[in-house]
Design a protein that fits this description.
single chain, alpha/beta, five-stranded mixed β-sheet, 13 helices, about 45% helix, globular
Length: about 300
Amino acid sequence: MCIRDRPEVVRVVRELPLPWRPNEHGRPCYNPRIVAICCFLMVFYQKTYDSIESYLMNDKALMSLLKVKSLPGHSVINRGMGKLPLPYLRRVMRHLLLKYRKKGLMYAVDSTGFSRANRSTWFDIRIGRKNSRHDCLKLHIVANLEEDFVHDFTITNWKRGDSPQFKRLIRDLPELDAVLGDKGYSSRLNCQMVKDKNGTPYLRFKSNATGKAKGHPAWKEAYVEFTTNTDAWMQIYKLRNIIESIFSSIKRRWGSALRSRLYWNQIKELALKVLAYNMRQALYVERARELGIDLRATVAA
């Protein structure tokens, strides 16, 4: 799949405001929209800054689609990655998924790590010597379990907990059917937030959990349902495994390591991986609809 097969990303980038303000003085610069698309292509095709320049240099079809006579070089794309705002990438993704947003969907939340090129070093008192390891960024996502789109994400340091990210993940979702999550997201506040959106929380209870509401009646309701109908509750909860396949798809296709050296560029690269996954998934969903294939039935088989 290439951007020429799914020109929606070009349409969305053209409809949205410029990702950053072009220079008002000096030599004329490349259109920021074109540079933003090239940043996406660099991540999508898993290229370095040097290799994406040679890859795009003779792509006449892409130039025709973008209506330009030449594409930016590696240095321009490098500077563009530094200027590309993360909120802008969120807006692009939301516009791409606008026609797939609807009420009453079942969602799942989870997180996974992507390794960075940087290493952290510390002195281990127990063994009396220095240790080092690759750091990683933690990607938290919320995905619908009907078409497997990632509807929102947050990116944090690997030390950050999962539960505080829950509010940010479901905040902009429409009315819910159910939200599934592991023990890392299990809290009274999170259960209540799902209930306030007319959804049913299936957040796996910890072993020491009790049914005390403590001001959050949704927690008590979910706990009673879990303890009285455990088998039925767990049958729904096991659908959360679908989100693991989403992480696997992203890592197998676009890698589990981040190429960028700078911290903020690593975050943007990871966000672009999510955008690339949604682009490819949209192609699969549209093709399945044309052929009359039920994606969920295919997964179940």
